[in-house]
Amino acid sequence: MKHSSSVRVLLTRSIFLSSCLAATAIQAAERLDPIVVTATRAPQTIDQTLSSVTIIEREEIEGLQPQQFTDLLRGRAGVGVADTGPFGKPSSVFTRGTNSNHTLLLVDGVRMGSATTGSPAWQYLPPSEIERIEIVRGPRTSIYGSDAIGGVIQIFTREGREGPPRVNAFVGGGSFNTRELGAGVAGGTAKTRYSLSASHFDTDGIDVLTGVGDDDPDGYDNASVSGKVRHGFDNGMEVFGSLLYSEGRTEFDADEFIFDPETFELVDVRPFAPAYSDYRQSAVRVGVRGALTDTWDTQLALSQSRDELFTLEGGSVADRESRFDTRRDMADWQNTVSLPGGWLLLGGIDAYEDRVSSTEAFAEDSRYNVGIYSVVDGQLGRHDLTASLRRDDNEQFGGKTTGQLGWGLPVSGTTRVRASVGTAFNAPTFNELYFPGSAFFEGNPELDPEESRTLELGARYASGPVFIDAAVFHTRIDDLITNVTDDQGRFSPRNVDEARIQGLELEGGYQAGDWIARAAVTLLDAEDRETGNELRRRPPASARLDIDRRIGNLSVGGSLLAQARSFEDSDNTERLSGFATFDLRASYAIDREWTVSASAQNLFDRDYVVARQFGTDYNQPGRGLFVTLDYQQR
C-alpha cells in the first residue's frame, strides 16, 4: 500500500513529539494500520515497513491467557522455542533458525541478557506486565549492533492513558498448584501519563527430569514490578522513564556423583537436595526527547539492565554454589531529521559497558562497545527504499561494520512486494572468551565474532479484514562458535562451523464482526555446512492457528500448535518426535469491570519433548486447567 511522503513525515514527527514510541504506537493503531517502532527505531505502519514483523497487543495477550512468556512466541512465524521444562526453566528462542543468542531482546528499548551466556532469560519475563510485543525477523545488527543476526524481539511494558487514575487487578489459579495475583493503576493528563503495576506468580510445577535428582515437582515463583511515566513541557520537550524488575526462585533436578577418594571410581549417585536458582533481572531507562527545530527531533536516554543468578546444589558430601551477575550500563543519543522530498534521516550513537561479577575468576570482567548508526528512509516514485549502516567499536575484537538495504513496491492497492539484503555479527560471550580453565571447559580469548549475510524476498496483502504476509529468506553464518575437544580432553570454543539457513514464512489474519483468526506456518532448512546435518532443536516445519469468537458477553477460542520432528544432537542421532497440542479458552464479562476467564492447556494431554539431557527427556506439562478473575476500573 502506497503512502504519500507528507503522510510519512507527519506520522513520524507527530508520534515522536506527542508521546513515547510505544504508547503512541498503540493509540495510532486505533486510527491507522498497526505501528512498528523496532524495525528501524522510528515509527512506521505495518504497510510502510520493509521487514517481516509480528505484533502481539495486550488484548491478544489477555485473550490467550498464557502461563509463561514463551507461550506467546511458540509457533509464531519464523520463531522456534525449546524449553527445558515449564515454569521458569531455561528456554531458547530460535528466530529464523539462528541460535538463541542471535535474537536481541529489548524491554522498552533496553538491551537485556546475560553477558556470560549471551542469551536473555526469556523464562523470567512476566506476561502480566507486558502491553505489547514486536517481533522483527531478519538481521538488525546495522541498527542495534551485536546479537541481532536472527532478529529483534521488543517488549513494551504497561502504558498509562489520558484520564483519571484507574485500578486494575487479577487473581487466579489452577493445575500444578498454580497461584497468581496482581494489581496496578494507570492514568494521565494531556501532558503526563503514568502506569504502575505489580504481580506475583507461584507454582509447584512438575518433575522436570524423571530419574534425575529427586522425584518432587520443580517449583517456580516470580514477583515483578513495572512502571512507566512521561511528562511533556510547554516548550515541546518531554522527559520519560520506565522500569521492569523481576525476582524469584526456580527449582531443578540434578545429581551428585560420589567418587572414591583413592581410586576416583564412581561409587554412588545421589540427588542434590535442594537444587535451585535465585534470579533477578531488571531494565531501567530515563531520558528526554523533543524537537530542536522544525525538522530535527532528538532523544537522549540512559539505561541499565541486570541479569543475576545464584545457584545452590545441596549435596551429601558438599554443597555447590555459583553466582553469575551481569550489569549493562547504556547511553543512546538518537536524532531524526526530515529531509526534502519526504525522506527521513535517523542517526545516532550508542554505547554500553558489560560488567561481570561471579564466583568464577574470569580472565576479564568488563568490556565496552560504542556504535554509530544511521538509517535513511523514503520514496523514489512508487519505490520505497530504506538503508542502514552501523560501525561498532568493541573493546575485545575491534571494529565491525554492518549494513542493510531494503526495497518495496506496491503492485496494487492491496499488495506490496519487498526485498532486502543485510549483514550482521554476534560477539562472543564472556563464557566463550574468558571462562577460567577447568577439567571440562576453558574459554578462548582469540575468538572472532560470528558473521552473517541474509537475503529476503516478501509480499504482503491487506484488504479489509484480511491480511496475508509471506517471506522467503536465505542466511549464511560464518565463523560459528562451536565447542571442540582440545588435546587435554577439555571443551573449548572455536570458530570452525558454517551454517546455511533458508526458509519460508507465512502469516495471516482475519478480523470481522465477532470472529478473530490468526495463523502462521514456518518451513525451515537449517544445515551445518561442515557436516550436512540439521542444526539441533530446529524442526523443519511448524504451525500455529488461533481462532476466537465473541458471543455477547462470552468469548471462546482455541489454539492449535504443531511442529515436525527435530534432533537433540548435532550428529542427528537423537530424534525428538513431532507433536501437536490444542488449547481451549473462554472468558465471560460479568459486567463492564469484571471478567472471569478459564483455559485448558494441552487439552488432550499429549506427551511431547522439545529438549533432552544426556538421553533423558525434559518433561512438559500435561493437561492444565486455569481460572482467572480480572477487574478493570472504567
Explain what the structure shows.
- This protein is mostly beta strands and 634 residues long.
- The chain is built from 6 helices and 37 strands.
- The strands form 7 sheets. The protein has a 22-stranded antiparallel β-barrel. Strands 3-8-9-6-7 form a 5-stranded mixed beta sheet.
- It is globular, with a radius of gyration of 24 Å.
- It starts with a helix and ends with a strand.
Strand content: over 45%
Instruction: Please compute the radius of gyration using only Cα atoms.
Output: 24 Å
Helix/sheet category = mainly beta
The largest pleated sheet is described as: 22 strands, antiparallel, barrel
Overall shape: it is globular
| Average pLDDT | 92
Helix content: under 10%
Number of separate strands? 37
Continuous helix count: 6
Low-confidence stretches: 1-32
**Whole-Å distance between the termini?**
37 Å
Outline the secondary-structure elements.
Elements: H1 5-18, H2 21-29, E1 35-36, E2 44-45, E3 52-57, H3 58-64, H4 70-73, E4 79-83, E5 91-95, E6 103-107, E7 110-112, E8 130-137, H5 141-144, E9 151-157, E10 163-174, E11 178-188, E12 192-206, E13 218-232, E14 238-251, E15 255-259, E16 266-271, E17 275-291, E18 296-313, E19 320-338, E20 344-358, E21 366-380, E22 383-394, E23 398-410, E24 415-426, H6 430-434, E25 450-463, E26 466-485, E27 491-512, E28 515-528, E29 541-551, E30 554-563, E31 566-567, E32 575-576, E33 579-589, E34 594-601, E35 612-613, E36 616-617, E37 624-632
Parallel strand pairs: 6-9
Antiparallel strand pairs: 1-2, 3-8, 4-5, 6-7, 8-9, 10-11, 10-37, 11-12, 12-13, 13-14, 14-17, 15-16, 17-18, 18-19, 19-20, 20-21, 21-22, 22-23, 23-24, 24-25, 25-26, 26-27, 27-28, 28-29, 29-30, 30-33, 31-32, 33-34, 34-37, 35-36
